[in-house]
Amino acid sequence: MTSKVSSPTEQADEAVVGEQRKPPGAKDVRRLDRVIIRFAGDSGDGMQLTGDRFTSETASFGNDLSTLPNFPAEIRAPAGTLPGVSSFQLHFADHDILTPGDAPNVLVAMNPAALKANIADVPRGAEIIVNTDEFTKRAMQKVGYATSPLEDGSLDGYNVHPVPLTTMTVEALKDFELSRKEAERSKNMFALGLLSWMYHRPTEGTEKFLRTKFAKKPDIAAANLAAFRAGWNFGETTEDFAVSYEVAPASKAFPTGTYRNISGNLALSYGLVAASRQADLPLYLGSYPITPASDILHELSKHKNFGVRTFQAEDEIAGIGAALGAAFGGSLAVTTTSGPGVALKSETIGLAVSLELPLLVIDIQRGGPSTGLPTKTEQADLLQAMYGRNGEAPVPIVAPRTPADCFDAALEAARIALTYRTPVLLLSDGYLANGSEPWRIPETDELPDLRVQFAQGPNHTLDDGTEVFWPYKRDPGTLARPWAVPGTPGLEHRIGGIEKQDGSGNISYDPANHDFMVRTRQAKIDGIDVPDLEVDDPTAGTEAAATTLVLGWGSTYGPITAAVRRLRTAGEHIAQAHLRHLNPFPRNLGAVLRRYDKVVIPEMNLGQLATLVRARYLVDAHSYNQVNGMPFKAEQLATALKEAIDG
Predict the structure, then answer these.
(1) pLDDT-based confidence at residue 8 (cuts at 50, 70, 90)
(2) For position 26, what pLDDT does the model report?
(3) How many angstroms separate the Cα of 195 from the Cα of each of 236, 341, 404?
(4) What end-to-end distance do the CA atoms of the chain give, in Å?
């Protein structure tokens, strides 16, 4: 869905309840500046679809938004159990926001497991909508409820709305020729209709979506539409929901443009397609499915009309091998994976370093080690990306900071790979990959020119006057070697994993040559042109200048920025900087770090960037770490940063 908004502004990430009004003959309508809703249920209850649809309608309405899908790793976890709970959190507002929110204002719990798994995150006074049909004695015992939480007073501090969602859905579909089990599957659409009424969401997009999704099953489409409308009508007519809410469009939050809601993996896919068009090269993806990177393979397979070729290999090693072969053949080559796949691909990444060919290795990080937490987020692959190969095999590293930023990060990774003839590691993570936010669709003239010049003929003259092609004769500015497409007459050359002689590319075991080649490859990476690090420090140059800098990378950007806003609103002075380029670091990073008495680095690992910063710059950087599979909460970070300021 797309919408247009205009003129930028920045507001604190805080909620304010506005005026309440009541049109003649209607229920009360209360205006809010932001809302956080969490849909939670069994893995088979369709919570991800429900959240997706609510998000799409919210995007089309023009709100700023941020989402956090959270689901089990099992394809179908045991029904009604705590490990089987799937949830989708959406934060939407009339102003600029940065995170999916710390705590939901509204929890929709489809069964006892969903309630128990999420109630600890719900603040007192929040709204809880529960599907009472699922609160049977057996279902409650399965998750450890000795008595019904709907009756024992444990929910007295909340605004609880008991709704027999299953029964009402079945009743709404009684005229359809569906079994009870089939009818019950539409209860998520009933819940979506109710929430759409509560928050004045548009409905046309969802109705069109259902007709399209079930076009080959018109009875199912009609049943889901009926359940959706029944939920809306229930909200309109029931006395239990006396108030509905409005959250105005975020008309002042963004620069003028055409926007759409986009997830990190989708933005990355579009960025890769855009990079191939800007480079005038075919895009080749050699990949093996792995959570949470598989969506990139799925998406790129849809774009053959843009010259995209996708290959689902038999394993991770074959996937990157095919991609490196495509790079040798003159394509913009990509392989996608997560941490375990990077381990399997490491030898071929080393080969790409030796061959000095452009190759994008996209790592959508997840919890580890080994299989770890496939559907949970983490940013613990930084040191693997930096050093996870045998020998001295330096690789540039780029990290996006938001879901929409994945588009620009893909273009930047392609620029580096093509300009410097090197593999590049792009480190996204599950939080960015599955989360979504508004994205301004760029104009084509805003995109960088990534065109490259292939070698066309001999580039070296031997002592006897013979003109030959040397594959390792370098550009003096970038130290990149020429890119010769196989089959070009006169450009035959040796290539492989054994060390090459400088210039000629002949196999060489000479110690001095090896030392020279190792240092040259490192110098090429060190010399990559990356922008200076920008510091957000409103107090710079004043008598009350901040003495604490919070430095982040990757997906911690949203929580860090939200926490910094809260501290500044409370009168604290604190500076913030966020790294996109992790190898090489921006040239001014050392100077920035030395300007502050304290440097705090929050990471979803045990301090990997902090380790690199301390080693490189001898700065006593302090780590603040979390590895629980979930992103930081803004309030949690604000508290930690306040302690750092005061400490």
Answers:
(1) very low
(2) 61
(3) 11, 40, 26
(4) 47
Pick from 136, 130, 110, 42: which is nearest to 81 by CA? Answer: 42
Residue 364 main-chain phi, psi, to 5 deg: -90, 95
pLDDT value of position 78: 87
Q: Which residues are registered as beta bridge partners of 336?
A: 362
Q: pLDDT tens for residues 390-449?
A: 999 999 999 999 999 999 999 999 999 999 999 999 999 999 999 999 999 999 999 999
d(CA 565, CA 634): 9
pLDDT digits (tens, 9 = 90+) for 260-287: 999 999 999 999 999 999 999 999 999 9
Q: Give pTM, 2 decimals.
A: 0.94
Name residue, tokens 């908004």. Answer: 5
Omega before residue 292 within 30° of 0, cis: yes
49 to 58, 104, 114, 195, 207: CA distances (angstroms) = 14, 18, 16, 14, 13
For residues 115 and 349, what is the distance between their CA atoms, to the nearest angstrom? 46
The pLDDT of 324-337, averaged and rounded, is 98
The one-character DSSP state at 630 is S
* pLDDT tens-digit series, residues 10-54: 334 444 444 444 544 567 999 999 999 999 999 889 999 999 999
Give residue 159's pLDDT band: very low, low, confident or very high (50, 70, 90).
very high
DSSP characters for 119-176?
GGGSPTT-EEEEEGGG--HHHHHHTT-SS-TTTSSTTTTSEEEEE-HHHHHHHHTTTS
Contact 310, 287 (CB under 8 A): yes
How far CA 551 is from CA of 260, 519, 536, 614, 641, in Å, comes to: 30, 30, 11, 13, 11
Which DSSP letter does residue 586 get? P
At position 418, the amino acid (one-letter code) is L
> In sequence order, what are the beta bridge partners of 285?
310, 334
Q: Compute the radius of gyration of the chain from its Cα atoms.
A: 27
Q: Which residues in 191-220 are b (16+ Cβ under 10 Å) and which e?
A: bbbbbbbbbebebebbeebbeeebeeeeeb
Calpha distance 259→316 (Å, rounded): 35
User: Which helix or strand (DSSP H or E) is residue 386 part of?
Assistant: helix 382-387
